[in-house]
Amino acid sequence: MVFGPHVLEIDPAAETERIVSMMRHTVGKVMRRRGAVMGISGGVDSSVVLALCARAFGPERVVALMLPEKDSESDSERLARTVAGHYGVEPVLEVITPVLDGFGCYQRRDEAIRRVFPEYDAAAGYKAKLVLPSNILEDDTLNVFSLTIVTPDGEEKNKRLPLKEYLQIVAASNFKQRTRMSMLYYHAELRNYAVVGTANKNEHGQGFFVKWGDGGVDVRPIIHLFKTQIYQLAEYLDVPEEVRQRPPTSDTYSAHQTQEEFFFRLPFKTMDMLWYALEHDVPVPEVAAAMDLTEEQVQRAFNDFLRKQRTTDYLRMAPVELAPAGEGEPVGLPD
Fold it and tell me: Is the Cβ–Cβ distance between 96 and 176 less than 8 Å?
């Protein structure tokens, strides 16, 4: 097959029926659960999964949770309600800000931010976000995060983030995803439902998720699909146009940022073709010619994918079970 944009084309109708059938079997027959619980954010991934769940189980057996906190995008709840209503599902609102306050999420995060920018004051209107260097095709830089703060008057300041502060900001922010996971399981266990995840191939394969947070689910129906394929399903499933046109955001930090800015470093259409080429061993010269890129740019992207996969392998690991002494491999850490 000649490499080109067509390699990412799917049959949305057939794929929808396959996923719906597998969800019915897995949730109903294997897990013996009566329906589905999922989080909705007004983004395209959760909207597609909501549409699939409504087809699989009926709208009356789908619980769509809106789980905002004080840093959430202002449009998220409105769009989530729009999507839920579009598919006949009654949304449930659970504001998780008080829980995060109890964990010290904001206090621990802001403490680290102030060690980099002493003037930072969230109560005074300052906002913050973590960012990676821009488009990987333009410069072969490593995935080293910087911290950007936005002052109350809109000025942006950026500094490279020391490791200690980076780890503290991420660890504190991950309370958000883990709190949402706990709330999803509360509502699932309340009804004997399964928790359905919304991660796609881009997020799972490159490590853009929180272990035992948004990665903690029972079923992952779209994990095999590239983002561009999710958009094909979204059009077929009649996801509202406003959602399909909305740039995907991280919706984690108080300052607005897209997923491309925070993590992926490439537009999805470009990234998906390059990743497909890497996985299918398409020769670099052929990829470069088909995408109007240089061979050096293609190789940069390949290297970036491999680095991200390698450094996030831990996130995809199941718990390691160590055999008792005398049974199998000896217990203990390697030298």
Answer: yes
